[in-house]
Design goal:
- This protein is mostly helical.
- The protein has twelve helices and three strands, in the order βββαααααααααααα.
- It binds iron/sulfur cluster.
- The site of iron/sulfur cluster has 13 residues, from helix 9 and helix 12.
- It comes from Sphingomonas lenta.
- This is Endonuclease.
- Keywords: 4Fe-4S, DNA damage, Endonuclease, Glycosidase, Hydrolase, Iron, Iron-sulfur, Metal-binding, Nuclease.
Length: about 325
């Protein structure tokens, strides 16, 4: 199990969840139907990742990696139980320390009221590659125009696109929103997705990812940032970039692998804790660990970061 040579990177379908975008955590009305050790500092081994393959159930596995001499190698652990526990403890300590350092640096991020699951699903599809304020306004416009989700599902794509015109790729997103809502409406005529609260996490994610335009990021956001409040990590492009530079995920890992790694490492975190961690990492990625010019000298995580140490010496 632990001999897996690399993160499981699945072939990606064209989904909004694979694109950048912020989770929707601000308020807004909805159609009536939806209302329902470094501690190990200075040690090369501090750059490691736990890469679970499947969440929960008898097929859960994990592979531990670390950077040694600039190369990723499997982490030599003992029994299966020891391997998994050791790897998860290692990763959990990192995540808690990073969270605490980011809270000290930025303060606790505001989350605001939560949307219904279907409302969050729609908002998340609209959010890809679009600023939060813009996608939030587009969502509000959609809600104001249509009295319920059924009306959105029945509306012409062009009409939906005109309503959410300020978001990027408005036509594509309108088509995805309508197709996803039609699929939801066929299986759940009341558009109530509260049943996802009771499903095993992997099943709930899989149910959502069958919908058009829905990848891991949108699925995780729907489960975590909505009223469902499920404990699953949202990983957007900012989070993924930061986690990669920190060495928590292997270079080339995708958002799915990163989300599974963070989720598996923190089995006792609440949904709210996962959401806060996502927002904190995202903030770091937006203001300090930017794609083109990371400012490692003022980064609260620089002591733990192999990339930062390489830059600042
Ligand atoms: S030290 Fe630099 S590369 Fe590492 S997380 Fe901070 S800003 Fe990003």
């Amino acid at each position: 199990m632990l001999s897996s040579p690399a993160p499981r990177v699945r072939p990606s379908k064209k989904v909004m969840g694979s694109k950048p975008g912020a989770p929707a955590v601000t308020g807004g009305g909805e159609p009536a139907q939806a209302a329902s050790a470094s501690a190990r500092r200075g040690v090369a081994a501090r750059s490691m990742a736990v890469l679970p393959i499947g969440l929960g159930g008898p097929h859960s596995m994990a592979a531990a990696w670390r950077v040694t001499g600039g190369r990723w190698r499997t982490f030599p652990l003992r029994s299966k139980a020891d391997r998994m526990q050791g790897a998860f403890d290692f990763a959990a300590a990192d995540l808690r320390r990073w969270r605490d350092a980011l809270v000290r640096a930025f303060g606790p991020p505001p989350t605001g009221p939560r949307r219904s699951p279907v409302g969050q699903l729609v908002k998340s599809i609209l959010s890809a590659r679009t600023r939060d304020a813009v996608s939030g306004a587009a969502f509000d416009a959609l809600v104001a125009r249509y009295p319920d989700w059924r009306r959105v599902a029945d509306a012409p794509v062009g009409e939906i696109a005109a309503t959410v015109a300020e978001v990027t790729f408005a036509e594509d997103k309108a088509a995805y929103v309508r197709a996803a809502l039609r699929r939801v409406g066929r299986e759940r005529p009341d558009f109530d997705l509260d049943f996802l609260r009771e499903l095993p996490l992997a099943d709930a994610l899989a149910w959502l990812e069958r919908l058009p335009g829905v990848g891991r990021k949108v699925a995780a956001t729907t489960l975590n940032a909505s009223t469902l409040d499920r404990p699953v990590a949202i990983v957007d492009t900012h989070d993924l970039r930061v986690l990669g530079r920190l060495g928590f995920v292997r270079p080339g890992a995708d958002a799915r692998a990163a989300s599974e790694a963070v989720t598996a490492a923190m089995p006792n975190w609440s949904g709210e804790e996962f959401l806060l961690f996502h927002l904190l990492l995202k903030r770091l990625g937006q203001v300090i660990c930017r794609w083109d010019t990371p400012e490692c000298g003022r980064c609260p995580l620089r002591e733990d970061c192999p990339t930062g140490r390489a830059v600042t010496g």
